[in-house]
User: Which sequence fits this backbone?
């Protein structure tokens, strides 16, 4: 039964635009609203949803909603529609000839996991082998207009119960804000993320961050700069964490061999799907390297997938998975995710992703949709 091939009879793509509660600024740009792409597949009497985390601007990666739409509509969906698929490995084999575009692939894979989970009546966390029922989380704080504004925002998140704070930094906005937050909140678990905004010759500020007892310094240099990260790590006690640099298990292997990082932020979208994310997790567990689950300001669909992933045992640092109300006034998925008083969020326990799509809200935020039938 479990080995009977399944066929995706039809699929649907939707380009969404959702207003963020607060503007989110990083070293590569400002977002006031977030675009993403939802993928729905159906067959065998069930439907599955996935989220492609590519946005409107190619700053975090080269992918955008536009490139992902093209790759999904013209290459990925034609490769899988109505094909006999025995599980995720078959899906991956079908799309393996298509090079790059990890976010587009990850969105499709997530829809497939949700669909399989619903057919098997099992939650995603069980399919992935996770055992936690709740996940330790933190919050990622965008660049603020002033240090005063930053202290207010951080204080507000701490009073909401977030037990770990991540500050976005960029050249010219690093030592002063980090020092201020550290002075006001001496004990709070704190980390920073440069989103590749630094050049290797701007290492002095990064080395100076060593005195603030940070959990980690995330992606100071551009994605390709593995050697520069390795050299910086030699001079730092604080672990370097790579995000944009790690697109696959082999890239994780290379970065670890080079000493370019001591921890990895695992995002399913960035690495081409949950399967590759699990492979990176397993590699890191084998090597004693701590990992944590990152985020891309996902809707409840993508966040449900991240929560299931973060339930795996090697995820030993708090995740960038915050409550729904940190991101959106209204979400397209229910139930909303809420923060527990111990800075955890529950892992969904229903079949598949364990969330339900609110079709009225979905329609309201959809800019474009298209159906694809079996051929
Ligand atoms: O670099 O981790 C990042 C959001 C969008 C793009 C890149 C990043 C982020 C975050 C937010 O830091 C994490 C979240 O979803 O809460
Ligand atoms: Mg990051």
Assistant:
């Amino acid at each position: 039964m479990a080995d009977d091939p399944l066929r995706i009879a039809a699929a649907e793509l939707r380009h969404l635009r959702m207003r963020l509660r607060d503007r989110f600024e990083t070293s590569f740009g400002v977002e006031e609203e977030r675009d993403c792409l939802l993928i729905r597949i159906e067959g065998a009497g069930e439907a599955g949803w996935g989220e492609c985390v590519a946005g409107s601007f190619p700053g975090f990666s080269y992918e955008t909603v536009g490139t992902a739409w093209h790759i999904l509509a013209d290459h990925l969906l034609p490769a899988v529609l109505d094909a006999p698929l025995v599980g995720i490995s078959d899906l991956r084999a079908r799309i393996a000839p298509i090079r790059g575009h990890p976010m587009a692939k990850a969105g499709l894979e997530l829809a497939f996991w949700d669909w399989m989970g619903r057919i098997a009546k099992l939650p995603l966390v069980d399919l992935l082998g996770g055992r936690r029922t709740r996940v330790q989380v933190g919050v990622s704080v965008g660049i603020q207009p002033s240090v005063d504004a930053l202290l207010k925002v951080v204080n507000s998140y701490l009073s909401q119960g977030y037990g770990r704070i991540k500050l976005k930094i960029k050249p010219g906005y690093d030592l002063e804000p980090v020092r201020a937050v550290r002075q006001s909140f001496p004990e709070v678990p704190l980390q920073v993320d440069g989103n590749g905004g630094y050049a290797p010759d701007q290492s002095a500020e990064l080395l100076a961050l060593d005195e603030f007892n940070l959990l980690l310094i995330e992606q100071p240099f551009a994605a390709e700069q593995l050697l520069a990260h390795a050299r910086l790590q030699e001079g730092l006690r604080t672990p370097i964490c790579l995000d944009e640099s790690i697109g696959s298990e082999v890239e994780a292997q290379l970065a670890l061999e080079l000493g370019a990082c001591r921890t990895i932020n695992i995002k399913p979208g960035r690495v081409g799907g949950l399967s590759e994310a699990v492979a990176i997790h397993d590699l890191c567990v084998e090597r004693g390297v701590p990992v944590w689950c990152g985020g891309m300001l996902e809707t409840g669909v993508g966040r449900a997938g991240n929560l299931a992933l973060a339930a795996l045992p090697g995820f030993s640092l708090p995740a960038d998975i915050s409550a729904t109300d940190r991101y959106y006034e209204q979400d397209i998925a229910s139930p909303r995710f809420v923060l527990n008083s111990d800075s955890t969020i529950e892992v969904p326990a229903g079949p598949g992703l364990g969330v339900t799509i609110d079709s009225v809200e979905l329609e309201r935020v959809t800019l474009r949709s298209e159906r694809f039938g079996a051929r």
